[in-house]
Amino acid sequence: MEGIADLPLHEGHVPLWLLKLMRKLAKAIVEIFILEYGPDKLVERLANPLWFQAFNNVIGMDWDSSGSTTVTLAILKSVLNNGEYGVLVLGGKGSKAKSVPEEISYAVEKLSLPSRLSDELKKASRLVAKVDSALVQDGYSIYIHSLIVSENAKWAIVQQGMNVNLKMARRYHWLSNSLESYIREPHSGILTLKMEKAVLNLVDRNVEGARKTIVDLAKENPSAIVNMYREALNALRKQTTLYPEASIVCVDPVKKQVYYAPITSVNILAERIARIKEASPRNLEELLLVKGVGASTIKALALISDLIFNEPPSYRDPANYIYDPFKYTFAVGGKDGVPYPVNRKVMEETIVTLENMVKEAKLSPKDKRRALNKLKSLRASVYD
User: Fold this and answer.
1) 3-state DSSP percent of the chain in helix, strand and coil, to 5
2) Which of 149, 288, 332, 345 could join 155 via S-S bond, C-beta 3.0 to 4.6 A?
3) Which of 187, 229, 228, 216 is closest to 204 using CA atoms?
4) Which positions ≥6 away from 382 have C-beta within 8 Å?
């Protein structure tokens, strides 16, 4: 179940001693998991926001912190960095997110993937980033972007956005083999702690008309788009339309909330439309990949599609599942003392136990099965 998780902004850093234990525990869990299920299944699990959050909690990170994404991805990246487990984590927070294209080339070589996959993975990375920032405009700016890829070319993308006003982060999850389309409900399941009341949502399955209209609009003469944009803005501000063929007479509060913020200057919009027109995109995916096209351009085109041509986007938050990951914090405790401070002794004993299981699992199929059964018994006793 892939999707989105909301996380509040927390201050502070993870102590060095805890980071070391987290890394050891994460490595033991990952190794046992891959021995049992293989690298593809690990990618699939990390694409599930609930499993990701549970893993984060089990290794001792906060259950509800925005920093949990950064720390968990960084730990996984360091644990998997040599490729011996058949999985690599690329990118990360801030400037590290921008290094994904270069790191993809390294991953293709390290995991012995076909060279053609390099361009495919780079395209996927760019599209996912564009979709969650331009087609889903929910008030969260993307600042973490990580691509997780296996030796069998299965990939997941985990990225996170921050709403500075709410001091809340939102995490987005994608998985390659469940992806029917980048632009039509690409998140097969979305989980969240907080629903947004007004979102510009162009990935809703029911707004195909708006997506098509946006692509058609982008092929028009830039001056014509600017004129329509001005008319749409006038309708938004005055709550009336000037175009006789437009059917929207009154702009409802939800739409006004979505379009309230300044979209872009008409000169910049004209330049970007001219660039799109020159590129001649055949669909919305190709339009998103045109250089310079981002949230403001898409919002301007969506406004025209909505108020002039009566082809609105969805205003529904794509998040559709509420969940409580709190129970997973009882494994070893949490960094900030919720539900209790990390029990260092228990954590160290758990690491030793798991490392011994890994050693046993490598001896023979029979020993492997015995060790894995021990792990299942241990897991059952923790959560009973």
Assistant:
1) 55, 15, 35
2) 149
3) 187
4) 330, 331
Long-range contacts of 75-80 (CB under 8 A, 24+ apart): 75/19, 75/22, 75/23, 75/26, 76/26, 76/30, 76/46, 76/148, 77/146, 78/23, 79/23, 79/26, 79/27, 79/30, 80/30
Q: Based on the domain organization, do 20 and 169 belong to the same domain?
A: yes
Per-residue pLDDT of 33-82, as tens digits, reads: 898 889 999 999 999 887 888 788 778 766 556 678 899 999 999 999 98
190: which 2 tokens?
A: 């979305």
What span, in angstroms and rounded, lies between the C-alpha atoms of 352 and 150?
27
Rounded CA-CA distance 291/308 in Å is 26
Angle in degrees, CA 149, 124, 151, rounded to 5 = 20
Residue 314 lies in a domain: no
CA–CA separation, 249 and 236 (whole Å): 10
Separation of CA 241 from chain center: 37
**Rounded to the nearest 5°, which phi and psi values hold at 184?**
-130, 95
Which tokens is 356 given? 């011994």
Classify each residue of 281-308 as buried b or exposed e, where b means 16 or more C-beta atoms within 10 Å of its C-beta. beebbebbebeebbbbbbbbbbbbbbbb
Q: Is residue 203 part of a domain?
A: no
Of 13 and 222, the structure prediction assigns the larger pLDDT to 222
Give me the residue label for tokens 């293989």.
38
In a domain, 86, yes or no: yes
User: Which of 307, 334, 354 is a domain's end point?
Assistant: 307
Q: Pairing state of beta strands 191-192 and 321-322?
A: parallel
- Write out the two tokens for 342: 């990390």
Average pLDDT score, the chain? 81
Q: Which of 319, 288, 4, 321 is nearest to 135 (CA)?
A: 288
Question: Based on the structure, what is the number of domains in the chain?
Answer: 2
Q: Is 1 exposed, middle or buried (CB count within 10 Å of its CB: 0-12, 13-18, 19+)?
A: middle
